[in-house]
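sorry for the late reply, my laptop died twice this morning and i had to redo everyting from scratch. anyway the thing you sent over, i finally got around to it. pasting the sequence first so we're on the same page, its 66 residues, then the predicted structure underneath. double check i copied it right bc i was rushing
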Amino acid sequence: MLHIQLYRARRDHARLSHMIDLEQRSRRADPQRLAELKKRKLAARDRIAALEARQAETPEPRPHSA
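ok and here's the structure:
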């Protein structure tokens, strides 16, 4: 389950990065929207770091032998 959360957090981070890029390229870039997107991207990065730390602490499950 942890790997799914990590995948989703990474996907959100990438999506936010793309949205920031689009907003910055816009002729009418909204500074408030840009600041909010950057804040959300940082939160996603923090979530990724926390999940990676948990993953490093969690031992890998052993496959069942027959």
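The CA atoms of residues 12 and 44 lie 7 Å apart.
thats about all i looked at so far, will dig more tmrw
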